[in-house]
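Annex B. Sample input.
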Amino acid sequence: MAPHILLLLSLLSLIACTSSNPNTITLPLSPLFTKPQSSDPFHAFKLAASASLTRAHHLKHRNSSSLTTQVFPKSYGGYSIDLKFGTPPQTSSFVLDTGSSLVWFPCTSRYLCSHCLFPNINPSTISTFIPKNSSSSKLVGCRNPKCGYLFGNDVQSRCPQCKPASQNCTLTCPAYIIQYGLGSTAGFLLLENLNFPGKIVTDFLVGCSILSVRQPSGIAGFGRGKESLPSQMGLKRFSYCLISHRFDDSRENSDLILQIGSTGDAKTTGLSYTPFHKNPSGNNSAFGEYYYLNLRKVIVGGERVKIPLEFLESGSDGNGGTIVDSGSTFTFMERPVYNLVAQKFEKQMANYTRAKDVEAQSGLGPCFNLSGVTTASFPELTFQFKGGAKMTLPLPNYFSLVGDSKVVCLIIVTGGGTGPSRASGPAIILGNYQQQNFYVEFDLENERFGFRPKSCKRSA
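Annex B, continued. Sample output.
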């Protein structure tokens, strides 16, 4: 493996459960949103808002039966799960990400993470997967079809030094570099055993990253790509319930449920469903791994926001429309959409004093000063989808106290400037902050998205 390590070191400058049902796996799921140690009372919100905007920019500008596990609230804006790879199994922590597809972990004793000095995270103590300690770990050959999951179907392009007719080529799959909203990672691909209680997924394609920037934890890609965990396991459904970010970095967690066996077209009791929107240009599109939703209306205080259709519906090029992304913290709206929504809140809350100083310091808005207010009234925020399914958000999912003051701000972000009438990529990205305390189901077999309000804290 030394040649891979030398190659990746040269690339550093380029990147600055248990279940009674055999068809289900349940895993613990926890939040990952760091409360930074800072004297600035707005620092945490500025960091989350900035991270959400960076993530949105990344998502919008791309280059082309059931098992249960737990989901934990952790440090920098997402939710994590623990997975076991190798023989004997080694446990690694992964960020649950429906906006990307590769599953990768920090790997080898030489793993290096740059700019990873997050609170409660010391880069020197990041747990890494050690391939040499696993008897089932194998490098992926460049002719292996699974190498094509990342590098395309053209064998010659990924095996340039092999003769086209050679079936005995010993070259390995090329090293990868993947960009994320807040950082990047680089490594090489392995085939490894993914271990669940009572079930082992053999020859699972996983990334062995030895260099990362601002990515202290591995990522479990749950997108639509061939390399994603749902695709490789052939999942029929997966679902989660995200506990509140106020439990970040605590031992509280909720469940991620992986459904392996078919349930036909049966709907989960109590869920409202909306069909997924057909992905733009199929799986070959740069946006092909996203989960697009058919958002029809945004309603503020009972009044419909008149959003132009070009932002609500995605075209064949992937521009416009709405995606749901567990890897984004705050929901993103394209500037014209955000302005219309914000104006509705401003109009309906005109009796409260605007806190424009806090807006400037926090990166959020509109913000309102509630000092001296004994009883505050807030307009409801509802997303209505195709088929009539309505997601009415709990107040803490879209308004929050900021800092130590009695100022509340709308927890939705947008890009700077007025922007073009229609920018590239999805116009709305439904982040995990807005998904808190909802049971959410991705029904892949029937191509639909289901949800219902639920208190996700186990003791609730």
